[in-house]
Design a protein that fits this description.
Length: 304
Amino acid sequence: MSIIPDDNTLTPKRVPRRIKNGDAPYILSPKNDYVFRYLFGEEGNEELLTSLISAILGWKITHATIKNPYILKLYYDTKECILDIKAEIDENVQVDIEMQLWRSPKLLNRILLYWSRLYASQMKAGDGYHVLKKTISILILDDDPYHTNDFHVCSRIRNFEEMFELTDLLEIHILELPKLHKRREQDTNDKLIPWMNFLYAQTREELDMASEANPVIRKAADMLMAMSRDEEERLRYEAREEFLLDQQYGLQAARGEGIEEGILKNKQETARKLIKKGMDDQFIREITGLELEEISSIRNEKEV
C-alpha cells in the first residue's frame, strides 16, 4: 500500500505561520520556505546546513557546499519559485532539501523528478557512469498526510522478495513536522529532534528550548531573531505567506478537473518573469520544471 493518500484529501489551512512572542511582535517561522532558504541556503550559512543534514541522515558530515546560492535573490519578483537547496556533501554526495508547507498534488512525482535531474546533472558529455554519485532528496513537510506512524521516513530501492537493497544511489527522506510530538519525549539523544523542535517552534519559549540543544541551533535562532527585527524582511515574509496561502486555497478550490492547467499557467508566468530578468533556459527549467522546448517557445513570444 502506498503511504500517500489520494490528492483529493487536500485541505486548506489558512493560518499564517508565526512564532508567538508574548506581547512583542511575532517571530518569523522557519517553516516558511523563504525563511528556511535564508537560514540554510545562503553562502556563509554552510555550518547550519551541514548540522541539519547530518542530523537527518544520521551520520557526521564534515562539509556542505551550497550549489544554488542565487535563487533567493530572485524571490521578490518571482514568488512561484521553488526555494529548494542543492548541496554537495562528503564523498561528492548530492543533496536536495526543501521545506514544503503542505502536500501539493503529485508531490512525490515532483520529488522523484527533482532527484533524477540532480542525479543526471553530475554527468557531462564524455563522462562514464562511474561519475554518478549517491543522490539524496529531503522533504520537510508542515503537514502529515502520509500513512506512517513515524515523523521521519527514509526510502531506498529494495527487492521485496529477497529483501536486499538494489542500490544506495537513490535515497528519499520525508519528515512530517506535525508528527514530531510522537518522538519528542522518547528519543532525547536523537540529534534530529532539536532541529525539528527549532523548525516546528510555536512560541518563543519553545524556540529558546530548542536553541539550548547545541550552539549551531543557537546561531540559527539568533539569525532568525535578527531577521524578524528587519522590517523589509518582515514585509517579504508576509508577502510570501499570503502568496502561499492563496496558492494553497486555490489548489483546493481547483481540485480535480483543471488543476493541472492552473499549475502549468503558474509555471509559464514564472518563466516569463525569469526571461525578463535575463535568466538562461537551463536555469528556468530548474526553477519551473518546464521542458526546454516550451521555455524556448515562451521566449519567442512577441510580447514576453
